[in-house]
Design brief:
Layout: H1 31-42, E1 48-55, E2 66-71, H2 76-90, E3 92-96, E4 115-122, H3 127-138, E5 143-150, E6 156-168, H4 170-187, E7 200-201, E8 206-207, E9 214-215, E10 217-221, E11 225-226, H5 228-237, H6 259-262, E12 267-268, H7 277-293, H8 299-313, E13 314-315, H9 320-338, H10 360-365, E14 385-390, H11 396-409, E15 424-428, H12 433-442, H13 447-452, E16 457-459, H14 469-482, E17 490-494, H15 496-499, H16 512-530, E18 535-541, H17 547-552, H18 563-567, E19 570-575, E20 584-590, E21 599-604, E22 607-611, H19 616-647, H20 654-660, H21 670-682, E23 686-689, E24 706-709, E25 713-721, E26 728-734, E27 739-741, E28 748-750
Parallel strand pairs: 6-11, 12-13, 14-18, 14-19, 15-16, 15-17, 17-18
Antiparallel strand pairs: 1-2, 1-3, 3-7, 4-6, 5-6, 5-10, 8-9, 19-20, 20-21, 21-22, 23-24, 25-26, 27-28
Length: 765
């Protein structure tokens, strides 16, 4: 950015020396809304806020942009309000880059250091429907701002903000920007916000476009903060809005020549073609540089390709010196932006010229033995890909670890059998080292299994990398170091989401092209480089389906793109048929073998076991016993809380108690608490005090009065001295019931003798 476009901002000398202009419509900046906006977008950030003043279109005014940088501190609201007043008089709009930089003059995407809020710009189409979709799937936003613009249908264009629980930096900041783009794609918002330096209007300032003055107005403000990781889960599970278009909105930019055309179209000097020689050469050089940088070509192959394009398509060709100079310049820029170059992982897949073909007769006559299953029966075959899906907390990782350890020991597991002890590399990105070793120690496995798998099961702690070109190199080296003599039989990636790389276009898991890139250019290339015959296991999340959908086709629950299901050779889905029951169901889908029935499994004594479906009634009986135990536990918790609260001088009605102790002590919701109290009142464990005046309380509006349990006492406010110990103790008085609930009719009846606690026949605890 040139110096002539930077104004060094002194709010008292530059912008506060002119009288305020009269506005017949009363539209002027609102400093309160400006302060609210700054608190949401920059409240915890450090550094400087880049502020921009652009003259809005359609006013018949001209003016260059005015750029200032203000400190993200307590002085920011005052300074920005002063700048907004100046911009209002000049017919200029006020924008900020919603992130902080290190110093004045910085505003590039790479110079943004911190962001603490995520924004979606809804500027076209059915905006109310898009907002409703966001609210339904992502939850209540912190701010909803009317940006001043209107759609042709008359709807207000909106900026929707979610404030994070802490500022995002480095990798987290990149994730936040990717989320902005993914949300925009799913609802048809402005995808320019994939870039960290995309500016946005400031709430509380004035919109002037085409002579329409409107306040950039905060429609809603809520004290909402979201965790970036949890919000990423929500975005991943949010389906695209039907009809949103999944394309970027915003201003139209001139089309660049398509790379496919550049590589095959000759271009002459003098600008006689659709693009210049410089444009063509830059596009081609950049393409081959990306391939070399990502490890898909060697440097020598890349240079030969650049020289080939120069000789074949540039008329006349560039001198080699110029070609080399331009290649080195673009290479340096690419490395500066994307990090150091990487060594290629040479794929063992056959080249097109080596593509094998077989006649029907050859296939029928081949009676050679079938390859040995890695995991029988045909669950994981040589070179195969198995996907294990399940909802969060259903036990995927626990099941995966137990399964892999058994395979590494050469022992069967839930009917899945290895031919021998397998070499297993477990690439996991969820559990940190100390908690991984704790979990492995807590899993109850037979001693002989643990002894046999000590050296053949190798796991990573939580990884902070993507399985991109650089990450693939690092993983390949780790696997080769773990198994230097022979490659692994199984490589397991747990989970896909934490290591996913969607390729040069940065697509997410819901993008079929990005998913195919990850599977073919990352996962398969890694496998072929390490051991083409080894099996791959990918652990993945599932999305919510209705019970009927899950019953009809459980594999529809796999999160992300449909390309994943069409690619794997085996699929397993772990789910709970009954959310209140402990057992899980393992659905199995095979491409390389006959169908296998689903398995009903559970953890018994710390080990995964298969349950005979014929024992369903026995399982239900065990679950019923657990439910009974839970009800008894809740009864004891309620009674103990009532005793403890009374000892502190507090009595409760039924509704007050349910609302005060909702989700405390494992009691569940308020309706569940009321139900348990009603049951205990019928059984005589809970009675009622209608007249609480002796205990310093007024009358209750409740029909039953205050809750009372056996042995309840309250302090009176006085003190007494223990004659034996001399200790000063508060004076307590027994709380006696006045009414009880009839176990036959449910009517409220008077207690005959409050000093004798009577239970219905057979109900004494």
């Amino acid at each position: 950015m040139s110096d002539d476009k930077i104004i060094h901002f002194n709010p008292w000398q530059d912008f506060n020396d002119a009288p305020a202009a009269e506005d017949p419509f009363g539209v002027e900046p609102d400093p309160v809304q400006i302060a609210t906006f700054l608190d949401v977008v920059f409240g915890w950030c450090e550094g400087q806020i880049p502020v921009r003043g652009f003259v809005d279109m359609g006013q018949g005014k001209e003016g260059r942009p005015h750029n200032v940088w203000i400190d993200a501190d307590a002085t920011a609201p005052g300074k920005l309000a002063t700048f907004a007043n100046w911009a209002w008089r000049e017919g200029a709009a006020v924008y900020v880059i919603p992130g902080t930089v290190a110093g004045a003059g910085q505003a590039k995407a790479a110079e943004v250091l911190q962001m603490q809020a995520l924004v979606v710009d809804l500027d076209a189409g059915d905006i109310p429907a898009k907002l409703a979709h966001l609210l339904r799937h992502l939850g209540q936003p912190t701010l909803i701002i009317e940006s001043g613009g209107r759609t042709p249908e008359g709807a207000s264009k909106l900026h929707v903000w979610w404030k994070m629980t802490e500022p995002a930096e480095e990798a987290a900041l990149a994730s936040l920007c990717r989320l902005r783009g993914e949300i925009a794609l799913k609802v048809g918002g402005d995808t320019h916000f994939r870039s960290a330096h995309q500016p946005i209007r400031v709430a509380g300032t004035v919109y002037h476009k085409h002579g329409n003055q409107r306040l950039v107005q905060i429609r809603e403000h809520h004290s909402v903060e979201v965790d970036l990781d949890e919000f990423t889960e929500r975005v991943s599970e949010m389906p695209p809005l039907p009809g949103a278009g999944m394309v970027a909105s915003g201003s139209v930019t001139p089309e660049k020549p398509r790379l496919e055309d550049v590589l095959v179209t000759p271009v002459r000097e003098g600008g006689r073609d659709d693009w210049s020689r410089f444009e063509g050469a830059s596009a081609a050089i950049g393409h081959f540089i990306r391939l070399v940088h990502e490890g898909r070509m060697s440097k020598e192959e890349g240079w030969q390709a650049i020289c080939g394009y120069n000789a074949a398509m540039l008329r006349p060709s560039w001198p080699i010196e110029r070609l080399q100079r331009e290649s080195e310049r673009l290479w340096d820029l690419h490395v500066q932006k994307n990090g150091p170059p990487l060594v290629r992982l040479d794929s063992a897949a056959p080249a097109p010229s080596e593509m094998p073909t077989f006649t029907l007769g050859a296939l029928l006559d081949d009676e050679s033995p079938m390859p040995e299953d890695i995991i029988a029966p045909r669950v994981l075959t040589p070179g195969g890909l198995l996907v294990l899906g399940g909802a969060p907390k259903v036990g995927k990782s626990d099941l995966t670890i137990s399964w892999l350890v058994h395979m590494a020991a050469g022992q069967p597991f839930l009917g899945f059998t290895p031919p021998r002890p397998l070499r297993v590399f477990y690439l996991q990105a969820e559990i940190q080292y100390h908690y991984l070793r704790e979990r492995l120690g807590q899993i109850s496995l037979p001693a002989k299994v643990l002894a046999a798998a000590r050296d053949t099961f190798v796991a990573t702690p939580k990884l902070k990398l993507l399985l991109d070109a650089e990450g693939s190199i690092r993983v390949a080296r780790a696997i080769q170091a773990a198994f230097p003599d022979a490659g692994p039989d199984i490589i397991c990636i747990d989970p896909i989401r934490n290591l996913f790389d969607g390729g040069p276009d940065g697509g997410g898991e819901n993008d079929n092209t990005a998913m195919m890139f990850f599977l073919k250019d990352r996962v398969e290339v890694l496998r072929d480089y390490i051991n083409p015959a080894c099996g791959l296991i990918l652990v993945h999340h599932t999305r919510k389906l209705s019970k009927q959908q899950l019953k009809d086709d459980p594999f529809l629950a796999l999160s992300g793109a449909s390309a994943l299901r069409g690619f794997y050779t085996s699929g397993l889905i772990l789910h709970r048929p009954d959310e209140d029951a402990p057992e899980r169901k393992l659905e199995i889908e095979l491409r390389n073998g006959p169908a296998l029935p689903s398995k009903l499994i559970d953890k018994v004594g710390g080990q995964w076991v298969e349950i005979n479906p014929m024992n369903e009634r026995l399982v239900r009986a065990e679950v019923g016993a657990k439910y009974d135990a839970e009800r008894v536990r809740k009864q004891e918790v309620i009674l103990s809380i009532l005793l403890e609260e009374a000892a502190e001088g507090r009595l409760y009605t039924v509704n007050q108690f349910a609302e005060a102790f909702e989700n405390k002590g494992g009691l569940g919701g308020k309706d569940a608490i009321r139900d348990r109290i009603a049951v205990q009142a019928t059984k005589g464990a809970v009675k009622f005090v209608r007249n609480a005046a002796p205990y310093g309380l007024g009358p209750s509006r409740s029909r039953f009065g205050y809750l009372c349990v056996e042995g309840m006492v309250m302090p009176t406010g006085g003190e007494e001295v223990d004659p034996e110990t001399g200790e000063v103790c508060p004076v307590r008085v027994a709380v006696l019931p006045t009414h009880y609930k009839s176990p036959q009719t449910g009517a409220l009846l008077e207690v005959e003798n409050p000093h004798v606690w009577v239970y219905p026949e057979g109900e004494r605890p």
